[in-house]
Structures are given as C-alpha cells and as structure tokens.
Amino acid sequence: MRYFLLLFLLASIVLCTTSCDSFVEVDLPKSQLTNAAVFDDYATADAALTDIYAKLRDQGLLTGTASGLSNMLGNYTDELTSYGSPDNPALPFYFNRLLPANASITDYWNISYNQIYAANAVIEGVQLSTKLSTKEKNQLIGEALFIRALVHFYLTTLFGDIPYIMTTEYQSNNVVKKITVHEIYALVITDLDSAINLLSQEYGTPERIRLNQFVAKALLARVYLYSGAWAESANAASAVLNATNLYALETNINAVFLKNSKETIWQLQPATAGKNTDEAAAFIFFAGPPPLVALTDNLMNSFSAADLRKSNWTAAITDGTNTWYHPFKYKNFDYTATSLEFSIVLRLAEQYLIRAEARAQQGDLIGAKEDLNKIRERAGLDETTASTQQEILDAILQERRWELFTEYGHRFFDLKRSGQINAVLSSTKTGWSATDVLFPIPQNELSVNPNLRPQNSGY
Predict the structure, then answer these.
(1) Structure pTM?
(2) What angle do CA 313, 326, 54 make, to 5 degrees?
(3) Torsion of CA 296, 299, 303, 308, to 10 degrees
(4) Which residues are 326's β-sheet partners?
C-alpha cells in the first residue's frame, strides 16, 4: 500500500507542477498531494518534501543549470559575458532587455510559486495528520517553512513587492495582493524563526542535503543583513559560526566545493549517483570561443595575482590568440564513480562576511576586520589595510565579489542593497537602466490578477 501511495504522490506532484501556470492565478487540479492519506505515513510525507528539494535543484531560481540565477544574474551584472547563438535565453539578461513577456521571467515566477504551493501543502497535510509523531511533524514542517521562506526571499529581492502565499486555498490565492518588501522580510523572518524552533540541530544525513537549525539561522543572518537589522544579523551568523562541531573553513581552497566540505551548511544532491553539479556543466568549456558564457575581464582583472581564488576557482582557455576564463569552483564536468560535488546553497564563508558587515555597521571595526581577514587569509592574501568604517564596508563588498562570484546572484543583490548598482553597472554594462534593479512582473500574471498591479517601473 505504501508503494502505491508513493507512486500516486509522485505522479500528482508532477501534475501540479506542469498542469497549471501559476499557483497564485488559477485553480489547482485535484491531486493526491492534498489527500490526507499521504500524510498518514512518514515515508510518503517525506517523499512529498523530498520532491520539493528535487524541484529546487532542477527548476527555477536555484537550479544550477544555465536557466538558474547563478548564470542569469551573472549575465545581468558584471560577472559573465554572454556568447552563443542569438536565441541564447541569457542574452536579454546580458543586454538588460527584459520584457514582461520574457519566458525566463515567467518561469521564475510560476515555478517559484509552484514550489511554495508544494511547501504549503506539506505544512497543511502534516499539521492535520493524526498518524505522524511530534518529532516527525516538527522536522517536516520546519523544512517546509524554510523552503517557503527561502523562495519568497529570492522572489522579493528580484521582483520587489510580491504576494506571500501561506495557503493552498486557490480562491484566496487567485486574487492575492502584493505586499511590500519590508512586509515580506518580516514574514520570511517569522517563518525562519518557526523553522528554527522545530528543526533539530543535527543533520538527518551526512551529506547535509536536509535542513537543521543552523541552515535556517544562516539564511536568517542574510535576511537580517539585507533588512538592516545589524545586531540580529551578527547574532544569527555567530550562532552558525560557533557551531564548530559541525562547521569550519576549509584550509585547502580546492576542498571548499567538494560534497564532504566542512564549510557546507546546505547543499542540493545530484539527481543520480555519479552525477556531479549542473553548475560545472553550465560553466565549464574546453575550447574557445565559449559556447555560452565566460567570466568578464572586469572581474578577472580585479583579482590580485596572489589570490588563490583566481588560480583555483577560475580556469583559462586559449585558442592561441585569445584567452577566456570560466568559473571553476565545481571541477567535475562528467559523471564519476560516485558523485564528488553537490550544489552548495549556503556555506560558512558567507557567514563570516555577513558578520563582518554587520559588525562594521555597528561600529565594531576590530571584529569586522577579524572576520574579513579569515576569508582573505584562506585566499592567500594579506590582512586588509582598510581602517575607517566606510573603507571596511567597501573592502567587505569587494571580498564578497571575489568569494561569491557566480553563486546564486550575490553580486546583483550586494550592489543593489549597497546602493552602488547604478554607478557600477552603468559604467560596465550596455543598456543598464536604473529601473533594472527589479525584474518585470510577468504580463500574464497582471492580466489574470489585477491585484498584482502596478507593473514595476520601467516596464
């Protein structure tokens, strides 16, 4: 019986994610995902949650494929130069010519709200279950709350004011209204706080592919940073950094992106045994000119020659006349006997940089420099010479560029929240406009639900 329930469950999830355009605009098909029987058994309830992780890995904002944020926002900013054919989906991002009807933008919106719907279905189903233990309920709900918070957080950083969907009830979702970024952040923080209270401090698996308290605290530290809550951001980052029984910076820079890295806080497992990351497949090339993208000269020239990240996390390809560079954080392009690299979503180095920035904003310049220098030391660099608060903040922003390039759009978000995006990208990008700080809301969404209007400025 469990076997057949699982088959029905998986089939229904596929139906949900392929049969409707958006969970905020249309009625949902009846599906086994909302059947109470699914949540009477831990194996099938857990399968519903596991499927959401698979969707995060394979589709939408966080996929490591060329359609994900790592590639698209790299093109949108000053990290990647776009190549390939005129129908390359990254070209509208590279030339900053996004339109409300852009297929990638529509996919980001629809797939993200599908993932949020699935998380809400798990939360509601588990809450109503009379068969699951309290421990099982807490873990499943905690993970689903984190996923709901995570996806909303990325959506609001891209689109600005958006709906925050907390139910599977289609009638209310069909006429949902936008709320402000400030309100979105508050709800994200509430969901993450709830997740922290429900999740265990331990990982369910050695690979760190499922969530614990520290994963939620790591994201919470970032959300607080983005919202300007410096003390709260520093405290959340410290909670992760102090968990030295679980985490430590890798001294060998080439070990950072291996699947057993001590630096990993949360990662997404490849779909099949022996497969490695989609990031490697998207970015690595072996002959020039590049088939899709290469790192910009602007980024490559910004590295110090002594920086180990330049020599180990980028690779040069030449045709004898021209030289191009590709990201080389993930090094395994092909299948291996066992998977060697997973897609790392959250890692410890970011927490040091988060706390450095939060400390500097509070005037703790000594503590800020200590955190910043930990990252510089691992990269083979001398300690920072920055001394004033503004110099230290500028140095942290630059360090984030070198440390986090082509990882889920950090460069775009950092430039935007620091207020430097127009000055930097107007001088390095063709076609950049001040209104490009937000993506357009998909046109079909505005047509179906007028409550999502007005369209973002510039579109």
Answers:
(1) 0.93
(2) 80
(3) -70
(4) 315
Given a contact cutoff of 8 angstroms between Cβ atoms, the answer to whether 144 and 119 are in contact is: yes
Q: Which contiguous run of DSSP H or E holds residue 343?
A: strand 343-347
Closest CA relative to residue 151, chosen from 118, 180, 126: 118
Question: Measured between alpha carbons, how far is 198 from 136 in angstroms, rounded to an integer?
Answer: 10
In three-state form (DSSP H/G/I as H, E/B as E, the rest C), the secondary structure along 98-141 is: CCCCCHHHHHHHHHHHHHHHHHHHHHHHHHHCCCCCHHHHHHHH
- In the prediction, which pLDDT does 29 show? 38
Residue given tokens 């003390």 in the structure block: 231
For residue 331, the Cα-to-chain-centroid distance in whole angstroms is 20
Residues 6+ away with beta carbon under 8 Å from 318: 288, 324
**Contacts (Cβ under 8 Å, ≥6 apart) of 444:** 21, 25, 101, 106
Cβ(358)–Cβ(367) below 8 Å: no
Between the alpha carbon of residue 64 and those of residues 58, 111, 207, 345, the distances in Å are 7, 15, 18, 10
What type of residue sits at position 244? T
DSSP 185-213: HHHHHHHHHHHHHHS-SS-SSTT--S--H
Percent of the chain at pLDDT > 70 equals: 92
Indicate whether 15 pLDDT > 80: no
Orientation angle between helical segments 348-361 and 389-404, nearest 10 degrees: 160
Q: Could you tell me where the DSSP H helices lie in 242-344?
A: 278-283, 297-302, 308-313
**pLDDT by residue (tens digit) across 175-217?**
999 999 999 999 999 999 999 999 999 999 899 999 999 999 9
Query: Tens digit of pLDDT for each residue in 100-134?
Result: 999 999 999 999 999 999 999 999 999 999 999 99
CA angle 418, 421, 427 (to 5 degrees): 140
The whole-angstrom separation of Cα 53 and Cα 157 is 21
Q: Tokens standing for 65?
A: 């494929």
- C-alpha distances (whole Å) from 69 to each of 36, 57, 242, 428 are 35, 12, 30, 20
